[in-house]
């Protein structure tokens, strides 16, 4: 019999499920980021899979594995000094005629809509180590960002 007509099982034809991708590089976190990661692990561990559909239980376990890995690899960064843009700072900058403020945080804590960007984001990388009053290149434009203010962030 030809292999084309043989069918071992239905499982053999299902799409594979992959782990949630871990961001490349170090897992830097703020104190807030570490707290949020712990809370996420605790919340996921508290969910009972009893009576849950098999696919939902697999999804939950996959997410729990991700967050446990992120908690185990978390590296709380020391507080920034505040004189230059660094991890754990709030940066107010001018781009064109608009003033904007962002907080530079870890990958899992980033919420761009709330003004929290990951230290690995292109904008954060462009501003790193710049001081108040300095202009930096961004988006292929020389001096397109001007740093107006740099502050150390606390538990926000």
UniProtKB/TrEMBL annotation:
Residue ranges that the Swiss-Prot or TrEMBL entry lists as coiled coil: none
GO molecular function annotation: DNA binding; kinase activity; RNA polymerase binding
Name of the molecule in the record: Nucleoside diphosphate kinase
One GO process term, biological-process aspect: regulation of DNA-templated transcription elongation
Lipoprotein is among the record's keywords: no
Matching PANTHER family: TRANSCRIPTION ELONGATION FACTOR GREA (PTHR30437), TRANSCRIPTION ELONGATION FACTOR GREB (PTHR30437:SF6)
Pfam families per UniProt: GreA_GreB
Domain Transcription elongation factor GreA/GreB C-terminal positions: 82-151
Keywords, comma-separated and alphabetical: Kinase, Transferase
Organism name: Sphingobium baderi
């Amino acid at each position: 019999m030809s292999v084309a007509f043989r069918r071992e099982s239905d499982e053999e034809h299902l799409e594979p499920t992959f782990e949630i991708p871990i961001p490349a590089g170090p897992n830097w976190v703020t104190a807030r980021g570490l707290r949020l990661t712990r809370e996420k692990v605790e919340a996921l561990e508290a969910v009972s899979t009893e009576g849950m559909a098999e696919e939902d239980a697999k999804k939950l376990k996959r997410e729990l594995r991700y967050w446990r890995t992120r908690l185990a690899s978390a590296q709380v960064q020391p507080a920034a000094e505040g004189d230059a843009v660094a991890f754990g700072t709030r940066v107010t900058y001018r781009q064109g005629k608009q003033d904007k403020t962002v907080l530079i945080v870890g990958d899992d804590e980033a919420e761009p809509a709330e003004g929290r960007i990951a230290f690995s984001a292109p904008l954060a990388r462009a501003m790193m180590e710049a001081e108040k009053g300095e202009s930096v290149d961004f988006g292929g434009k020389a001096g397109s960002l001007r740093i107006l203010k740099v502050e150390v962030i606390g538990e926000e």
